[in-house]
User: What shape does this take?
Amino acid sequence: GHANSQLKGIWIQTRFLQVPPTQGCYQLEGKVALITGAASGIGKETATNFIKNGAKVVMADINKQIGQQTARQLGANASFVTCDVSKESDISNAVDYTVSRHGQLDIMYNNAGIACRTPPSIVDLDLATFDKVIAINVRGVVAGIKHAARVMIPRETGCILCTASVTGMMGGLAQHTYSISKSSVIGIVKSVTAELCKLGIRVNCISPFAIPTPFAMDEMKDYFPGMDSKALADMIHNAGVLKGANCEPRDIANAALFLASDDAKYISGHNLVVDGGFTSFKSLNL
Ligand code: NAD
Assistant: This one.
């Protein structure tokens, strides 16, 4: 008993000396998160941020190799599960894996999404591609919410997050298929909030501006085939409006950290727009 508490005291002291007492305002101490699309970009940055602020994180991604590698880099509070969000059984498995590993699921972040190359005119819309994108960006989000709710409802607590996009709020920023998928995410959040708010579960989404992650770079390469990566990244950044800042994965990760924390305990059904003012502006700043 005594020796134990002495040891504990030393441990706390050492820990206190090594780690600054506040990493940021919002803490996730004791919380367990499951993040889809966590091997790269926004998902990876959010996993890192959540762990830094005390959470245990299960990283789910279709890319097993990079996902496992990333989880290993993030240490003992990170683990990886292979998951294709377009398959309901994969989502269900990821949720069950999280609960069996950590005993609970507090935060479900439905972040995985893909871009697509479809013709710009609705007349030429390829409905097979449309179905494929909707299966990941919309059905994957719905399945994620469904299975998170399955384990959150009995505990009457939980936080569900999704990544939407400014392209889901305005027309003409991306091709129809992608825009439609992201406006659906914003709609899903409203619809599900209406049920789950009565059960103690918050549901929100984040709408980022363009960020030069692999996802956005792939998409842009098609439009501007001759440009190198640096020039493409600069172009994506320059499309923003806020002077002195670029939209980066950590801006989304910080928004997610806030929404996931108890400091956001009365925020539900919200679309947190992280766009440097873009959707209030009149046009691309090119
Ligand atoms: P990213 O390419 O860096 O990461 C996306 C991750 O999702 C990858 O690790 C990929 O393997 C994974 N993934 C793809 N399909 C999957 C599937 N079926 N199941 C599970 N995982 C899958 O891209 P990102 O920019 O971090 O994108 C994350 C989210 O942000 C997406 O929903 C995207 O639509 C959204 N978003 C991105 C931007 C941007 O400009 N980058 C802007 C607005 C919204």
User: Anything to note?
Assistant: Residues 62 and 84 are 5 Å apart (CA to CA). The longest strand covers residues 201-208.
